[in-house]
Amino acid sequence: SADGIATFRYEKRTHFAPETFTPHPDLDHEVTIDAVAALAFASAQPEIDPKCVFVLGHSLGGTMAPVIAADRLQQAPGSVRGIIFLAGGALGIEETLQRQLLAQAQRQGADQSQLDAIQKQWQGIFQTINDPTTPTDEMVGTPPLRLPETYWRSWISQDPPAGLAKLHLPALVLRGTKDIQVSEGDFQALAQVNTAPGSESRQIE
After folding, report:
1. Dihedral sign computed on CA atoms, order 143, 149, 155, 156
2. What is the CB-side half-sphere exposure of residue 193 using CA atoms within 13 A?
3. What is the mean pLDDT of residues 28-41?
4. Are 181 and 155 a contacting pair, CB within 8 Å?
5. How many Å apart are CA 67 and CA 159, to the nearest integer?
């Protein structure tokens, strides 16, 4: 751009090459591996300053941004200058998903008994997910969130605030106050550990 800022965007492999994801159903194969490769590719372009590369993640990309940055830094120390979270989920998937599903059902007119049934159903689903004896290839959940146990395990293991704290990288944490997918709690969880010099956390109307 005229401001000297370049961006590199791409579609997730679950969209353009789903057959490569099916044998490895986890967040690393959905998000992390390709994002790290994209960072390496962008950094190698002659017009790019490899010391000024930032990871920008939206939604699930924001959730995974600390892992992406950590993996790229392990591959090439000093290769990530900072992180930008655009409505990045930070709380555990169990809490987040149930909150989102209940909010969606409420917007669609569900009464309290229906909301209670949804909550009870997903509490049972997460008991199965969290049970170490559940086979890794078992499909768990309800459509469209009926996913292999390996995928769920990779999701429940994520801890974005802890990952950000370990990196000691400057971060810009952004959330819209009317966002119904990402909560005030997600924002605060990241903001509280976002203390590296040059960091900023902001909610936008």
Report:
1. positive
2. 18
3. 96
4. no
5. 9
The amino acid sitting at 30 is E
What angle in degrees, to the nearest 10, is found between the helix axes of 93-107 and 149-156? 110
Amino acid in position 155: W
Residues 55 and 84 sit within 8 Å (Cβ to Cβ): yes
Helix axis angle for 93-107 and 112-130, nearest 10°, is: 160
Matching residue, tokens 């709690």:
185
Is residue 47 classed as helix, strand or coil in its secondary structure? coil
Q: Is the pLDDT of residue 102 over 90?
A: yes
- Is the pLDDT score of 36 beyond 70? yes
For residue 161, CA distances in Å to 39, 104, 155, 171, 185 come to 21, 26, 14, 11, 12
Exposed (0-12), middle (13-18) or buried (19+): which is 152, by Cβ within 10 Å? Answer: buried
Residue in 56, 53, 33 with CA at minimum distance from that of residue 43: 53
